[in-house]
Amino acid sequence: MKFDTFIASVRPFGPVVVGFTVGLTFSLLSVRWVTTPFDYAAAEDAASSQEGREKVVGSPAFMSTGANGNSDDFRPRIVAYEPAVKNKTKEPFRAKYISTELGIRERLFVGVLTSKNTINTLGVAVNHTIRQHLDSVVFFTGMHNHKLPHGFPVVNHGYEHLTQAMFQTVKHILRHYINEYDWFYFTQDDTYMQADRIKGLVSHLSVNQMLYMGKPVEFVDKQIQARYCHGGFGYLMSRSLLLHLKLFLGNCENSFLHARPDEWLGRCVVDYTNTSCVSEYEGLEYHHYESGESVDYSKEAEQFEYVLTVHPVSDPEHMYRLHKLFTHIELQKTYKEIEKLQAEIKNLSEVAYEGKRSMVWPIGINPSFRPENHRAVLWWDYFTEDLIYNCPDGSPRCELHGIDRMDVEDVIGVAVEEMNRKYKPIIHLNKQQLVNGYRRFDPCRGMEYILDLQLEVINQKGRNLSVVKRVHLLRPLSRVEMIATLLVRETVTVHIILPITSQHTDHISSFLDAYAKNAIEKSENAILTVLFIYDHFEAQEVNQHDIFSAVKNQIKSYERKFLDLKIPWISVETEGPSQIRYMDVISKQHPVDTLFFITTVQTNISSEFLSRCRMNTVRNRQVFFPIPLQDWNQDIACHKQAVPKMAHLNKDTDMFNSSSWNEACVYNSDYVAARALLASDVQEKEDLLENFVISDMFVRYSRLHVFRAVEPSLHQKCSKQTGLGSICY
């Protein structure tokens, strides 16, 4: 019974035991047992044959040789490390411009053939008439030891023979310009070319064509059926044609030397490229005009509507007259295109959602400026023929003079001329007087005018009548252009001049705190100079009671806090705090190239403003008088509210104080020059300096541009203006 129980308990482990036994049996059978003595010589041969290969455990190479064998091969050895030699791969070339990398070429290259006798006359005239319209114009000449004119590129190849000069010109172009341009235009300096029309012709041609285009002329050899292009009227050659000609150009060097240069080139093109000169290609024609000795161009203006070149041109005056004629023709074309576009806009406005109300007068001009609030409303200035009722100095009325008078006279003349053109020949109008005139500047449109003109109307029968006519005119804004300015160094040191009187001692702490935060801690390239202004009584008691002793102690504390900081101060005794008097003292103690920023204790200086002070002040050209952002009286602007810590543009808390002229950025050399002119004028009346400020001096006694602009980063606290002597400082 016990045996059966034992068998029943062991039976589940039977398969496990059987499986383990079978697995062990098969593993033992798969092992190769070696019972014979090992042949060490054969093992060494096998190891030497397998040198450099991976050794396998159990192979003869990993078995010890014992005492009878050589065991040197199994001792560790130090193998010298030899790094793998890196292949020197060539760095890929990256072009500076994407057009170069993509193989995009410029459209047109113009080569002008000139000589030493005409380069200073006709050559200069050609350059003046086409340079502004073409991107690449190069003059080719062969003169020796001759001074070349400045202002345009000239290639001197050194060959005065006409045919050799033509060969050297083509050779130079193939060497330097063939990979940069698609089309090459050759002309002479006694030819006038309409540059814009040449560019228009090229823009409609395919670059893959072998094209030789100009005025076709027969060869001297009548047996040649092809034609060459006359050089006097210019000719156009494609890049594909020149590349094909490049292979055979050497064969043409010494051939046909007796021929004209244009005929020589045409013969070479015909012989080796089988391309003849054509004047028309795919509907595009090469129009030219042959000029005579006495031609009245005004009578033949219609013939020049499509002309590309005019030849020959006798002198520079002839060249400029042609340029004036073609410019007038192009201007009339532009006017016609504008009228056509205006008519299209007028027709399309009828089907618009708002109908004709969507059309703005004048057609094609931007609509008027729309103010967001009543503060942004544009005001009209009222004027007559002699007076204007809005003056720059704030006066209610002043006389029209200078550019303002010229502007009013021009507007009245244009108005009468346009009305006569409209009503001609039924009536004729003559101006009698300007009854009312209004003008305003719209930043979206330009200068707008409303004129009430009293006119004399004369009909065809000679009867006259006086009427008043209201007209609207607009002088639109012209094309916006970038104006070149002088280079200004942004790292120049700004010398901050801070004048202080006895009434400013309470504000110096806040000024020094702002200066330390915005200039010293930011390592701004600026130097502060404090100017203590004493009157006669204060100067006598300076040893017993210095009114600026507390300020001087504050300056010393800042110098101890910032080890590299030095704040120089100067004491000046004056009858009144005149800017001219204390700047005379400062100017003598600094070099002429010093940049001054004159400020007040109510001003918080920022790093952003100091950068603009450097940029807006140009030596010998411009001085800068910023308009600070001044706080309103905080008791009124922030009544029962928290005062904001940071300055921000808000019409309820601050404003741009346009009446403040105390802040100025000037160079010492400009101040000295203007001060010398002022000194000669007030030599006998020194007391006049008390009423002078620096801005008045630069406006009256200097030719420099006085730049005036709002400056949001120049924040100024509100303060009471107390009268100091004869002026309010």
Observed structural traits:
Spore Coat Polysaccharide Biosynthesis Protein SpsA, Chain A, Hexosyltransferase, transmembrane, disordered C terminus, 3 domains, signal-anchor, glucuronosyl-N-acetylgalactosaminyl-proteoglycan 4-beta-N-acetylgalactosaminyltransferase activity, six-stranded mixed β-sheet, 32% helix, Nuclear Transport Factor 2, Chain: A, 729 residues, 19 helices, five-stranded mixed β-sheet, alpha/beta
Task: Describe this structure as you would to a colleague.
The chain crosses the membrane at residues 12-34. Keywords: Golgi apparatus, Membrane, Signal-anchor, Transferase, Transmembrane, Transmembrane helix. Belongs to the chondroitin N-acetylgalactosaminyltransferase family. The protein folds into 3 domains: 98-311, Spore Coat Polysaccharide Biosynthesis Protein SpsA, Chain A; 374-476, Nuclear Transport Factor 2, Chain: A (Roll); 494-728, Alpha-Beta Complex (Spore Coat Polysaccharide Biosynthesis Protein SpsA, Chain A). It is extended, with a radius of gyration of 46 Å. The model is unreliable at 34-38, 40-69 and 723-729 (pLDDT under 50). The longest helix is centred in the middle third of the chain and has 34 residues, at 316-349. A 6-stranded mixed sheet has the order 3-2-1-4-9-6. It is built from 19 helices and 30 strands. Helix 5 runs parallel beside helix 10, helix 6 (162-176) packs across helix 9 (261-273) and helix 12 packs parallel to helix 14 (549-561). With 729 residues, it is of the alpha/beta class. Strand 18 (446-459) and strand 19 (464-476) form a beta hairpin.
